[in-house]
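ASSEMBLY PREDICTION REQUEST
Request ID: AP-0331
Submitted by: J.K., bench scientist
Number of chains: two
Total residues: 623
Priority: normal
Notes: Please return the full assembly, not individual chains.
Input sequences:
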Amino acid sequence: MPRYLIRRLGQAVLVVAGVIVLTFAVMRLVPGDPAVAYAGPKATAAELAEARRRFGLDDPLPVQLWNYVRDLLGGDWGTSLHTRQPVRDDLFQAFPASLELVGAALIIALVVGIPLGIAAARYKGRLPDLSVRLSSMLAVSVPVFWLALALQTVFASGLGWFPVAGEYDASLDRTSPLHLYTNITAVDALITGNWPILTSTLSHLVLPALVIAAYPAGVVAQMTRAALIEESSRDHARLERALGFGETAVLTRFALRPALNPVLSLIALVFAYSIVNGFLVEAVFNWPGLGRYAADSIRSLDTPAIAGVTLLVAVLYVVANLAVDLLQGVVDPRVRAR
Amino acid sequence: MTAPALTTLRRTPLRRLAGVDRLAVAGAVLLGVVVLAALLAPWIAPYPEDGGSATHPLEALLPPSGAHWFGTDQVGRDVLSRVLFGARTSLLIAVAVLAVSGVAGVVLGVVAGYAGGWARDVIMRVTDVFLAFPALLLSLALAVVLQPSVTTVIVAIAVTWWPWYARLTASVAASVATRGFVDSARCLGVPAPLIVLRHVLPNSLTPVLVQLSLDGGGVILTAAALSYLGLGAHEPTSEWGLMVQQGQSLFTTDWWVVTFPGLAILVTAFSFNVLGEGLRARLSR
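STATUS: Completed
Returned structure:
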């Protein structure tokens, strides 16, 4: 195990280093001059030169890359051009809201996807199987921004069942202010027993979380089905059938646990994907997360902010991947040998 | 597992598939309809000039009717015509992205898989780095940096897409390289480039082709998302994501402006997915 751990950690560090270089390279392709964007159109030549010097734009590229890496590791992620605040603080503020939204979506995806996958595997080749397969393919084919607009129009603006936008009713900040611990509104409201904000947040969560859940739910259903079908054709399943267990019992009592292993590692992989998909959904529902921050940054060509968001999500992906691999290495010795 | 699948696919594609997986056939038919719509758009669109910059302010935002099946948009253009022309944009992007990233990925993957050693390590570590960015994220960053256009969308997505094919091809090619016929060729003195080209490459392609058809939907969705964010196609090009973005504030009052382009994206991505799923089921049997 220690050797596997070191090898896998080394790989992850290498990938993160590559991610930083690639982000740097992409950001240096910017046609506009970041100094102009920062100093404003009316800046004098002296102010421009000052901005260039401040951002180190006069240095040769390798020096800029070195400074960039040094600053990143020192905790300086640059200053956002549109909020004029450190990017790291902005990300720290926006990320918990995205985490809340995507977390809710992944819970929905598991709760919906796994039972559907079980039903499909149980009735393989029959009507329930076909309908689960088709609807999961529909779920992964739907454009999220369009689904977000459609649900918002029908269930919020039209029927008025859910709030149209935002994270919770802002007027509650006065009547029952929220104490922050984790910065995740729903969690903080729950642990401090702030019911008005909790219920308001949950009702605001429903529609955007459902939209983001569509893709992972479809993938989870397909994966559960495939893993169960494979698992139930193994020798242990034959033995269980011979012992008189029914088909449903074979699937749910014996095949499900080993089959869930790949499903759970899949969830870690779609996590980063869902965060990015959430960008589009957050824009529609005006959710105060990374997506809205990214959208504002894109509009103002705010390079340091875009670089920060890109880096954060990529690093999250590497960490999630690493966590899954290590967990599986602990659970399953065969993984370590690979 | 790869060699027999490839020969059957090659011999009589349609008849073999028909007996094999109804899903694949359904997907192929659905996708065929979309392709036909794209190819024939200038002839079957009821108002072909509306696919471009024509405007009819007096006919703005008419609901669906006999004259305009999908209604008209803010400047009076026929939505059905624009949806049909939009199929051209989306399929062009999908084909270009899959071709570019497919070729790049397969070439690098075959080299990595056959050569092994440090070549494989270097190529795989580079794909690791690219795979750490969700496709939409990296193409978003690239599209911000480049000028918004259809070409930008193609470049941005292709840059994020090739590593998948490199990985897949590398693993298949590595297993093909250990097979007997490759050894025989090597013993006969066939030079390595020729072995790769004549023996390893053709026998590694089938899983990649299946993956390409599965990924068509993903490319279409990513491209539509970029255009929706204003980073892709722009007026007067007919593009589905752009149409949704332009009509989104009208959804409550004039639903048809947003609904039909969105459905077009859904149907096209769905047809790619159904076809790909069917082919994959066929391959894994």
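REVIEWER COMMENTS: The domain at 99-291 of chain A is CATH 1.10.3720 (MetI-like fold).
SIGN-OFF: pending second reviewer
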